[in-house]
Predict the structure.
Amino acid sequence: MSLQREAGGAQLRLTGTWTLPEAARLARGIEALSLPKGEPLGIEAGGLERLDTAGAVLLNRLVGKLGKQADIHWQNLKPEHQVLLDYVTNCNPAAAAPPPSDNGLVRFISHLGWLAIFFLREARRFIAFIGRVVEAAVMTMLRPRRLRLTSTLFHMEQTGLNALPIVGLISFLIGVVMAYQGADQLQQFGAEVFVVNLVAVSVLRELGILLTAIVVAGRSGSAFTAQIGSMKVNEEVDAIRTLGLDPIEVLVLPRVLALMLTLPLLTFFADIMGLLGGALMAWVALDITPFLFFERLHEAVTIWSFLVGMIKAPVFAALIAMVGCYEGLRVKRDAESVGRLTTRSVVQSIFLVIVADALFSIFFSAIGV
């Protein structure tokens, strides 16, 4: 490969073999070329003896490098070499892709557009998955013998009974913190007794169910994704389909039903532990006896304060379970996909729980509850 200056412009002569064993040497030669600027350039390819895909890629890179500065004309390029060079040029994504915009605002708007398309596509797929789960649930209700009772009870134990310690501890500590922080502020106005109202309403309406749902999303939702994802990696889901069974009915429905039954019970337990924590801190910090605390509690809250949190529980449970199972069924046959989608399922579950909680708050406020 040599570059010569002539009267009509520069002439680049290609010689020898442009193949994979020579690729490193040829690449260094291309980088060392002193390129013409604004001059016509002829590429003499008559001396090119052999060309493979690696050599065609290097030629494509050379043309791309020279094409920015010169008008290029090929000479004596053999037809078989022309075919290979055209194929590599057409298959080169960098050559086909438009150059990135230098305008930061344009790039930002383009990024927002791609994110919107991604979220809409994911929402459509998730809604379709919910439809399949509802369909399987209706078919199971029509034929109850198809319900996997053993699997459902097993997942109830895993998601409910085994989660009691962590849910109870977190709720108790949240009750303690709410009572302590509330007392610190209300003492300034001589209204320490209203700390009972603060703890009761916040725990029963919001914190009890919300914290329980977040803990369950991180604990059980991720477990659902990891379990089903591992089955996808080991081709067990394919085996279920081969046996003529529906993975939605076998894997998803028992988990959804189990979590919808256990999350209300966990929420009730979290409410009790949160109130006990608040009562203990009120007794220690404000000298409000447990008898006075629960007497004030009876006056401060209504049955709807308790029911608001309990109504949210089955909805949150369905969202968490279906997100966990949905991401698990999307796992590819590699370990990296299991970890990535498990993380995604936790994030999406918590996000959907908070969005649903906000919608519930608006709805209950609108109807005056």
Observations:
- Residues 93-97 have pLDDT under 50 and may be disordered.
- The CA atoms of residues 168 and 298 lie 22 Å apart.
- The longest strand covers residues 40-51.
- The chain has 13 helices and four strands.
